[in-house]
Amino acid sequence: MVPALDDGMARLALAVRAGGELLGSIWIIDPGEEKRATALHALDRMAPLAGLHMLHARSASDFGERRNADLIRTLMDDTPHASFAAAHLGLDTANGLAVAAFSIVRPETGSLESVRDIHRLLHLVTTLCNVQFGNSHSALIGSVVYALLPCNGTSPRGPHGRIIQEIEAYSHTISSFPVIATVGGIAEGIEDLPRSRSEAIQTLYYLLNVQAREGKSSGTGKVQSVALYEDFQAPLNLLKIGEFIEDNGLGGADEIARIQARDAEQQTDYLDTLRAYLASNGNISAMATQLHVHNNTVRYRVTRLAEDFNLDLADPQKRLWLWLRLTTMDLAST
């Protein structure tokens, strides 16, 4: 029995279980001491029937989630059959769509509680997208929740930004861990959905890496957790350039590789000097401030850098290549 609070009425509650698993509960108003035993007996008789209804409802819900996941996965991974999946989902693709991705930042995955958290996140995304757009096409695929966002009106990115901010703001109600929310670029047609999904995932993992790095360094963990793809398009494109350089062996034994080897062998700081030189466009005073050394020390280091590695720092193409190599390396290490 649950006693009354203030002017409320006392209630009787009974847990509904199946195989030891808690499915829910049944509540009724307490009819009073004389009839309480009869009411509790009625609750006992209702519990098995309620359990069957709860299991049926959950089974139907699970089937719907699996169906949505299969169809949305087809949309994003199987272009030849994407039109079939869109028709079954009843998607309106006239104005385009954008893929949103959501993930919970947990120190561990695979536990029962982490599985419950990600399913709660799916239900939160589904509910708020229904409220915002009047419909929702969302699914849990792997450990990421995806949602297909419509592109209505002349400025669809406004609603896209607002919905991920709202979902992140409400995420504390379903998990004690932070949520990362991102949206890929607009897909004008169904065939562009894989690109939008890729952009959403790239942005999501970029923010996850930023969270891991800056959260630890600041000790607060308060770093950006929602973003549209275009918010980080520059660093994401630079990461792709870095992958191209790495995959095609374009770095090889160039100046950056030789400078790295020298620094590692002799405990020098040539790479930091070059990084500061490129970041400040060769401004000696700015470099001295950044490196916390005297101006003359900076001049000496730059001279040694150019002479020891035969660097023509006056050549704009050489500076561009060195900057690309350093920037893509630094981004990849985050």
Determine the fraction of residues in helical runs and give it as a percent range. 55-70%
Question: What shape does the CA trace take?
Answer: elongated
Q: Report the CATH superfamily of one domain.
A: Reverse transcriptase/Diguanylate cyclase domain
CATH architecture name of one domain: 2-Layer Sandwich
Under the CATH scheme, which class of one domain?
A: Alpha Beta
Gyration radius from CA atoms, angstroms: 29 Å
Average pLDDT reading: 85
Structural features:
alpha+beta; Alpha-Beta Plaits; Arc Repressor Mutant, subunit A; five-stranded mixed sheet; two-stranded antiparallel sheet; elongated
How would you portray this structure in words?
It is built from eleven helices and seven strands. By secondary structure, the chain is α+β, with helices and mostly antiparallel strands. Among the domains are: 91-240, Reverse transcriptase/Diguanylate cyclase domain (Alpha-Beta Plaits, 2-Layer Sandwich), CATH 3.30.70.270; 251-332, PucR C-terminal helix-turn-helix domain (Arc Repressor Mutant, subunit A), CATH 1.10.10.2840. It has a five-stranded mixed β-sheet with strand order 4-5-3-6-7, with helices on both faces. The protein has a two-stranded antiparallel ribbon with strand order 1-2. Helix 6 (233-247) crosses helix 11 (316-332) and helix 8 crosses helix 10. The longest helix has 45 residues, at 33-77. The two termini are 55 Å apart. The model has no long low-confidence stretch (mean pLDDT 85).
